[in-house]
Amino acid sequence: MKILITGASGLVGRALARECSGRGDEVLAYDHKALDIGEPDAVETVIGEQRPDAVINCAAWTDVDGCESDPDRAQRVNALGPENLARASRNAGAVLITISTDYVFDGRKDGFYTQRDQPSPISVYGHSKLEGERRAQAAHARTIVVRSGFIFGPGGKNFLSNVVSLAERGAKLKAIRDCWGTPTYGRDLARRLRELAELDLPGIYHVVNSGDGASFETFSVEALRLAGLSTDILEVVTNDSLGRPAPRPRNSRMKCLLSPAIGLAPLRSWQEGLAHFIRESHKQALKTQI
Known about the structure:
Blueprint (H helix, E strand, L loop, with lengths): L1 E5 L4 H12 L3 E5 L9 H11 L3 E4 L6 H6 L1 H22 L2 E7 L22 H16 L3 E6 L2 E2 L6 H10 L4 E4 L3 E2 L2 E2 H14 L3 E4 L2 E2 L3 E2 H11 L7 E4 L20 H4 L5 E3 H20 L1
Parallel strand pairs: 1-2, 1-3, 3-4, 4-5, 5-10, 6-9, 7-13, 11-14
Antiparallel strand pairs: 8-12
């Protein structure tokens, strides 16, 4: 397949480029500097000239607190960006996959969110991502929306991706005990994105690793245990105690109703994905020391 990736310098974008290249695909990888998805003319030109089989959108503004203070930028990137890609993909005859978020839900549910649950975002970030889903689907019938969350992996800038490296440097860590999600290993997410591109079955998919989910606290404890590090450096806090500008859902755990129906096996447990991530990180660290 010929696959065009936006947001290719991010955690998921890099993992996806690696996954597709390993499968023998022709990969067209664009970071923000090469292609700003908020610019409709640029998007139309690039996709129209390249004529890919699939466009996979990994570009987004994921700074939840930043979005809260700059809703116009959030709208441009997270809502209008997917619409621009959808329109250009339609014109080029390509399937579009765009990544959305667990933050489209308000977190009041006790169990897992599925496609049957009505989105009800509580932050500017969540609102912008939900609007991006809907705009993309309205612009192009061959749109696949992939909701994910608590994503971790190589090169990630978030807490989950860096808890072990921070601990190894002796940093004090604040782990939130009362916000739950379903951790998702970037490489496993990338593999599923590639599978969905090949299947070309429009709809909304929840793509997360298997298991009961985790809080930031339980994820951190497991990560430090797997890395052979002490958990004494963890300071367990509540979400409200941090006083962050944007509200977060208390529970954003997700499961997919659609994947099993089309023959897609569940992803491995988040603990297995985390163990793989830590092993690979240590191997990479040893290489850089040699």
